[in-house]
Amino acid sequence: MSLLMIRRISLKRRILIGFAIPIIFFIFGGTINFSLVNDIKSTMDTYLERDQPQVQTLQNLIKYSYSFRMPILVIARTPEPEERVRLLKMIQENRSLAFEAYESFEATITTEEGRGYYKKLSVIWEKWNTIINEIYTVSEAGDFEKLIRCSSNNVSLYSKSTRGY
Question: CATH assignment of 2-161?
């Protein structure tokens, strides 16, 4: 019966139906595509406005905090006064940059999730600074044996204590 119905439809209507179906699919697909692209755009805008500054300041914090880690470990094994002065200057410069990056990260936090990460980071940051201060203090005292023990023990303790973060 359906074959008989198709034969009754005029050629003009068959052509019209033949063009209408793809046009309807095209309009439907375009509407869905437009909606999805707008969702992606709003997600990217959110990322660029809110999340990217946090990521950039966190990357700066990592870079600067590790940039004075090595001089701290090297100074523990360097008895030459000229080299120690150079390393101490490098440590102070990089440490101030790390503190600036830490404060910048704190200023960019806008979400509850970010505050949770900041709480975890602040615990790690305090441990890190305690270790660095202890190594720095022992280094200033000039007790190289204690300094080497202190730097080795504290760095391994720090590594073990931050694995869960």
Answer: 1.20.120
